[in-house]
Amino acid sequence: MNFLNFNFKKAFILLLIISLPLISINMEQKKVQNSWFTQPFSFMAQTVQNGFSSLSRGVRSTTAQYLNLINIKSENAHLHKENSELKTRLNQFSENQNELERLRTLLDFQNNTKMELIPGQVIGRDLVADHNTITINKGTKHGLRAGQAVLTVSGAVGYIFKPQYFTSHVMLITDRYSVVDALIQKTRSHGIVEGKNSETCVLQYVERTEDVKIGDLIVTGGLDNIFPKGFPLGVVTNIERKTKSASLIIDIKPVVDSNKVEEVFIVKHAALENFLEKTVDPQTTSQTGQQ
Length: 291
Prior knowledge:
The protein is an alpha+beta fold. 36% of the residues lie in helices and 27% in strands.
């Protein structure tokens, strides 16, 4: 019964599988003697081998590309991190360079003046809109007193009006209660600079006949020896000539932006320092050249 149920199809397949290696060996040994009945088997074997070979190459290529992409992504992240670190170091270096240059400028200014100066730093600003003041980190402990001038290497800032033991309040020249003796650098005409708003001062009591133009530099007068004479205050931005007024009303913009001030000098003693002597007068130079 079992014999009758014998599966010829399975037997044929089994016989075919067993004969394939024998046929392959026979083909290798006798390549010249290719019988007609071995050619289909040889074609099938070559097709299978080529298919497996192509599949293997494709898998290897895909795997290699995937691994390369992973490496590129990792290297890209590493380079991005290094780039960010280098940018941070560069910014820090630039900031240190700027601070060094600023400190060098302050030191040169202090060493090249006759004035007795006390260096200070701005630690606060007045939040009241009615006043324009700043707070510095020096007070009576350091020899400060009310009325002393405060300036930077660029120009006048204000003066001490409320000294305390460790700190002091500085009234800026833009404060409406501020009054500073001043003169027009070009004509040497005297006037009074008063605060107008947070960005503007007014030069008053200048005669109408004075030759004043927009862009002229206004400097300190130095009459009270609080500020040194001839130190920059501001630049003329507007000139108002009223018909019934004997004097001009001149708007000036301070040369020092109080919102950007970080380091200041307090003038402990002006020592009659005169910056006008350091300014070359074009008329004097012309007369000297003619002589």
